[in-house]
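ZP: hey, is the zinc ion complex queued? I don't see it on the tracker
AM: it wasn't, my bad. submitting now with these inputs:
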Amino acid sequence: MAATKPLSPHRPRIDSPVRARCFCCSPPRSMIERAAADKNPLQTVRDANKVGLRLSDFQPRSMLRARLTRIERPRFPVIDVHTHLSWMSRTRNGVSVGEDMTWFATPDDLLPVMEHRGIRTMVNLTGGIGSGLEAAIARFDRVAPGRFLTMTEPSFEYVAESDYPQRQADALAHAKRAGACGLKLLKTLGLYLRERVDEGARLTIDDARFDSMWATCADLGLPIFIHSADPAAFFLPTDRHNERYEELAHHPDWSFHGEGFPSYDELIAARDRVIARHPRTTFVLMHVGSQAEDLDAISACLDRFPNVHVDISARVGELGRQPRASRRFFERHQDRILFGTDAVPAPWGDEVPQQLFGDALYEIYYRFLETEDEYFDYAPADIPPQGRWSIYGIGLPDAILRKVYHDNAARLLGLSA
Ligand SMILES: [Zn+2]
C-alpha cells in the first residue's frame, strides 16, 4: 500500500477559515481575524475621509477596455435639420417676439466644420419673422446656396387680436415667398405662451386659433417642426430620484414641475389632437417627440399618424442607452427619422455641451449611428450633462443610414438627391 503523500505545509488546511473563500479577492486581514470570532465576513471599516465626495466632484473614468471607433466623416452626406444659428432678440416670458435678430454665427464660422464632418446642409430653425427672417435668409441661404436653409416662426405677439388667424396666415405666405423652408415652434407653445404673451391664461397646443396656422402650412407646403413638452424627468420634482437632477440643478428654469405648468401627458395629448385634426399637414416632432424615454409610445404615434416624422436631436443620450430598442425603432421607422443635433455655436452653446456645435458633437452622433462601440460619452463633456450614463452604438446598415442622414430630410424639404 502506497504511503499517503503528506499535505504541503503551505497549503491551507481544510478546516482553515480562509479555505472557503476565493483567493483572488483576498479579504482584509481584519476580516480574517473577525471571521474567526464568527462576525460577518464582509464587514469592513469605512474610510470616513472618502464617504463625503460630492456628486458634482465625482468624475469616474471607465476601466472598460472598449473599442473606440472614430468616425470623422459620415458614410453619407448629412443634412442637419435642427440647428440654431440665430434667435429672435426680444423675449417676453420666454416667448420670442419682434423682428430683431441676434446672430450666433456667420457662414464662415460654420463651413470649416461642415467640410470636416461631411455636412451638406444645416437647417437654421430659429430664423425669425418678417424683416428678421429676410435678414437670416440673406445672411446664410444666399451667401452659401445649398449649405443653409432657414425656417420661420409663429407671430405669437398678435395671438390675442381678433384677426390673428389671418395675420398668421399672411406671415406664413410672406415667409414662403422670402424663401423659408418650414415653420418651427419652440416648446413655448404649451409651456409659456399666455393669452397676451405674458399675461392671462396659458394657451394649449390645440387652441383653435392656431388651426389656420397648421392648415396654411399644408397649403404652402411648409413642414412644421414642433417641439412639445420636454424630457419626462423635467416634469417631476428635482429630488434625489430624478435621473436628470444635475441637469436641473444647473438649469432650474428647465423644471416644469408643479402648479404653474401642465403635465407632460397633457402636452403630448394636446399635440396629438392637433396632428389628428390636420392630416394634410406634415409634422416633424423634435427630440424624438420628447418621448425618447418611451420608444413604444412614439412608435405608436408614428404608426397612428402617417403625417408625422421625428428628429433625433439632443437625444442620442436617450437612444444610446437602449441600443437594442433604438435599433428596432430605426428599422421600423427608417423613412421617418431625421438627423438633427440641436447645434448651437459657441459661446451661446457653451452651457449645453450636448448641443455645442463643433467637430466633437458630430463625431458622437456618427459613432452612435454607425458603430457598435460600447459605453461611450453622448456629449463632449467631463460629466454627462443630461444624466449619469453612457451610450452604445447601434451600427445601422447603409440603407438606413442614407435615409436618416440625408434622404428623408431631402424629400421633406424638397431638395435634390
Ligand atoms: Zn432646438
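AM: back. Residues 1-21 have pLDDT under 50 and may be disordered.
ZP: great, adding it to the tracker
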